[in-house]
């Protein structure tokens, strides 16, 4: 029987371990890029899951900085099992004592089974808990555990009879940033909104408008990117209490760094509109709680009044669909999309990006999309449409020698900002290539920090 497990103590900062970060189906490439930008090596990408390797600091920084992951799992092991006896024995063979202290509270919080002979998730949970107790009992020399210490919730994924076992380092899903206490009927999650923004070429120097802003998720996530705000800096994580695995100092350093990098003085043009004044009030409250209210302009405005005097802006939005389509309001929804298309065409060289489950979106908008990407919003299959506008003209970069010799050299004025690098944000290329984030200080083990979309593609 094949079995693979990941041994060693995470407290040893120079050791490498394996992690798995689940994400929305169809957005694995976005999460992979985020992990790579953090400086960690991606081991594999599967449907809705990205695995990577790193040290103890990777656990902390992934939780604090990843915008599109649902959670971060510390991989314990992987094995084949087609009977419950095999499940018990293989689970008992995993090195649980390397992760769980004597007083740990441990249980299988969730088990999922797909195309496998073991399909009863409640039985999987119960049997694996018993196997864990046997292994830990043999190691600690006791039969009963009080479980009065920190929580170590275990998550299990069984796919084609392969059992993947991980400990949940995050606790509450990472989409819970801690700011959205006010929600509308069908909000888009923070992680999905962030991933969709990262799929576009938007960056902080460009206009972003959400004409159906709802609880404000798109504008708030964009403002957090512009301000270089770590999405997890204002929440708690289960693994913050894992003193046996991750030194408290590691959490302090990563969170201090996140606070140092925060730039709430950044200039932005991010706007959120909605026809419902109560919804706008919700969005404004959420933005205040996120700490980015000063970077967003919210306004009660129906989509029929959508306008903007400037060029080259972005509409990124989640218009109504789903529930309204199921309730027979197809004509009303189609009229709404038709109005959106009319107002979009009236804007000067703008781009439109929208997520929807409405199959008649292109027809109603009046234009075939340049790109169409299948994305799952929860269990609902949706599409993320790209209606690209013209790109703004590139600005010439004035070299120092040109500026010194000719203050208005080559069509550019002295002191004009240099054009930003092409790429996903202001992350600088790894190994010092142009476009990478500035490396962290020279202390051993410090890595580059992701730049979100704070200065990315044109």
Molecular structure report:
This protein has 458 residues and is an alpha/beta fold. It has a domain at 3-168: 2-Layer Sandwich (VC0802-like). Helix content is 28%, strand content 20%. The protein has 12 helices and 15 strands. It has helices spanning 28-38, 56-65, 84-92, 121-140, 190-198, 217-226, 248-261, 277-290, 323-326, 330-346, 361-365, 400-405, and strands at residues 3-5, 17-22, 41-46, 49-54, 73-80, 105-114, 151-159, 162-168, 208-210, 270-274, 296-300, 314-317, 351-356, 371-377, 380-387. The strands form 2 sheets. Strands 1, 2, 3, 4, 5, 6, 7 and 8 form an 8-stranded mixed β-sheet that branches. Strands 11-10-9-12-13-15-14 form a 7-stranded mixed β-sheet, with helices on one face. Strand 7 and strand 8 form a beta hairpin. The chain is elongated, with a radius of gyration of 24 Å. The protein starts with a strand and ends in a 53-residue tail after the last helix.
Search tags:
15 strands, alpha/beta, 458 residues, disordered C terminus, 12 helices, VC0802-like, disordered N terminus
Compute the average pLDDT. Answer: 86
Give the overall shape: elongated
Fraction of residues in β-strands:
15-25%
Radius of gyration: 24 Å
Largest sheet: 8 strands, mixed
Structural class from helices and strands?
A: alpha/beta
Summarize this entry quickly.
The protein has a domain at 3-168: VC0802-like.
């Amino acid at each position: 029987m094949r079995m693979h497990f990941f041994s060693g103590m995470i407290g040893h900062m120079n050791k490498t371990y394996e992690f798995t970060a689940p994400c929305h189906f169809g957005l694995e490439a976005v999460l992979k890029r985020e992990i790579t930008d953090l400086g960690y090596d991606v081991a594999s990408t599967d449907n809705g899951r990205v695995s990577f390797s790193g040290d103890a600091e990777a656990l902390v920084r992934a939780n604090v900085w990843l915008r599109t992951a649902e959670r971060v799992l510390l991989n314990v092991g992987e094995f084949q099992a087609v009977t419950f006896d095999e499940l018990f024995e293989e689970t008992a063979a995993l090195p649980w004592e390397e992760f769980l202290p004597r007083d740990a509270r441990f249980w299988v919080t969730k088990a999922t089974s797909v195309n496998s002979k073991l399909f009863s998730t409640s039985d999987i949970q119960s049997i694996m808990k018993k196997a864990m107790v046997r292994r830990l009992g043999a190691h600690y020399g006791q039969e009963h555990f009080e479980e009065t210490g920190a929580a170590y919730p275990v998550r299990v994924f069984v796919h084609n009879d392969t059992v993947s076992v991980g400990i949940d380092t995050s606790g509450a899903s990472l989409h819970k940033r801690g700011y959205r206490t006010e929600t509308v009927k069908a909000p888009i999650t923070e992680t999905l909104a962030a991933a969709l923004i990262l799929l576009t070429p938007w960056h902080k120097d460009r206009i972003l408008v959400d004409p159906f802003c709802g609880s404000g998720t798109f504008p708030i996530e964009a403002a957090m990117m512009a301000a270089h705000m770590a999405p997890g800096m204002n929440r708690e994580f289960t693994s913050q209490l894992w003193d046996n695995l991750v030194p408290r100092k590691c959490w302090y350093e990563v969170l201090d760094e996140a606070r140092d990098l925060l730039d709430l003085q950044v200039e932005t043009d991010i706007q959120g509109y909605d026809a419902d004044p109560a919804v706008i009030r919700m969005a404004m409250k959420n933005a205040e709680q996120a700490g980015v209210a000063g970077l967003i302009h919210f306004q009660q405005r129906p989509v029929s009044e959508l306008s903007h005097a400037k060029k080259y802006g972005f509409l990124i939005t989640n218009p109504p669909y789903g529930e309204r389509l199921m309730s027979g309001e197809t004509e009303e929804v189609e009229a709404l999309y038709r109005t959106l298309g009319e107002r979009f065409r009236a804007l000067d060289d703008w781009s439109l990006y929208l997520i929807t489950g409405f199959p008649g979106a292109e027809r109603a908008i009046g234009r075939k999309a340049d790109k169409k990407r299948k994305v799952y919003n929860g269990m609902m299959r949706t599409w993320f449409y790209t209606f690209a506008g013209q790109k703004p003209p590139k600005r010439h970069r004035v070299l120092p020698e040109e500026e010194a010799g000719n203050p208005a050299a080559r069509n550019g004025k002295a002191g004009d900002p240099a054009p930003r690098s092409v790429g996903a944000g202001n992350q600088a290329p790894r190994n010092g290539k142009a476009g990478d984030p500035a490396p962290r200080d020279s202390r051993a083990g410090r890595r580059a920090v992701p730049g979100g979309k704070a200065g990315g593609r044109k």
